[in-house]
Please model this.
Amino acid sequence: MKDFPYTEKKDTRSGFGAGLLELGRTNPNIVGLCADLTGSLKMDAFQKEFPERFFQVGIAEANMIGLAAGMTIGGKIPFTGTFANFSTGRVYDQIRQSVAYSGKNVKICASHAGLTLGEDGATHQILEDIGMMRMLPHMTVINPCDFNQTKAATIAIAEHEGPVYLRFGRPTVPNFTPADQKFEIGKAVMLNEGTDVSIFATGHLVWKAILAGHILAEKGINAEIINIHTIKPIDAEAILKSAAKTGCVVTAEEHNRFGGLGDAVAQVLVANNPVPQEYVAVNDTFGESGTPDQLMEKYGLTENDIVAAVERVISRKNG
Amino acid sequence: MNPHNKSIEELKDIAAQVRRDIVRMVHAVNSGHPGGSLGCTDYFVSLYFKIMNYSTDFNMDGKGEDLFFLSNGHISPVWYSTLARSGFFDVAELATFRKLNSRLQGHPATEEGLPGIRIASGSLGQGLSVATGAAQIKKLNGDNNLVYVLMGDGEVEEGQVWEAAMYAAHHKVDNLIATIDLNGQQIDGSTDEVMSLGSLRAKFEAFGWTVLEADGNNFETLIPGLEQAKAETGKGKPVMLLMHTEMGYGVDFMMGSHKWHGVAPNDEQLEIALQQLMVKHASDY
Model:
């Protein structure tokens, strides 16, 4: 099992803020919109440096999506910012009609996704957003794993013509991916080559998968760990190549088990090579108040949950 | 400038032709929305044959020209006919309205690439936001042209309209001319019965807009109303034109009732309607 050294923990939302600021400096067509959460989204540096290209919308997310769709007309690339819940469920129809169906080049950037928002509780902890966005034709769905990758993804989606949902979070997590990485939309990242099981993880669960990989190595299990930062379009080639080698799959995500990464991977497997798969995901429930760590433990999203899922799936493979 | 710039007499003839197209289009597929389309015909004809600066050589970004957005997308027949009659595509294509594999979807869409359409609409309440965003980018791009958007009166029951109304005033989006089609009707009955709108003048003025009113079925008042709206742009406030129309205008049995909101005429009713919509040089598709 490879080591993944890091010097500091950072929040993925700050990676978004850093990426947006860099984009502002390199691409005059980038505009930012925020619904009264500029500090939380880390858009304040962009706002300060490019006030003429930043639009404060107030607490009006539906309007923000419509504005962003309109702002593409004339050649601008709008990045909208609010919490993941208010970026998706609250404005699903606005995204569906004015952005996705209309093929608009809007980047919907969503912080505080999943349980790790913590104490605010279930009203703010959306666990359904990947599923909702995946279902929309034309939509690209990305959930990077750390600060560096979120920054790289933010910069990369500006070069991609079409609507994108970029999902990130609030807690600090180990910043272990390279600062100079080239982010390729739709291209899975091999983290650790293995032979016994394929662990496909996204977002904050990527680091948990690495922790699980070390525990599994001590148990003599050689796990292949792949970071699926792009959930749509999914990297079917990487999934099938790994599944063919290991013969069993665990998916790990900070999302409901319905509609997220697990289902995206399962769709690829059942149509091509139906090997056993176990889900590490929230089991069709809402979240609640608590610290991020407490919630990840209660809802089964820790490295130990990944280890248990690996042991289950290997026993099914050998069954 | 406007590529047609017709006289009022010519506009009347064009409007009658557009109304003929509308009733024939909805009749042909026994579906669609003739009432609001007929009521707003004079507005569309005014914009595309007199008021707006645009090119029929369509491009999505629309830099250097005025933009129009239709928020109440169900009155697509009047828009499609107007676009075809002003040269965006062949009028023969109107025969494909609402049919399989057509660019003329039941509600306007960009997916099939119909020239003249810049955003899908149909799910109500979204167009004012879109138009406001497009207007702000015109300013950012140093483009002095204007953005027009039409909404229905029942449509303002959608909350997003008021989010956009508050935003456009706050951000001083003064290159935007919104119009509400005040026909007093919606699907379940009159707006008074279904959801009282109160004074839209007072509401939009309170939100910080310049509010004008015009008769939308009379070119002698509508053209000056639109010209006045243009004159009010650039003064720090978004402009609202409250346009009084009669649903079904031009076809007597369709007028003044919500019943023709989304119902097509039968063969006999079509013939009566066409007899009432006489054109000097009819050129039905």
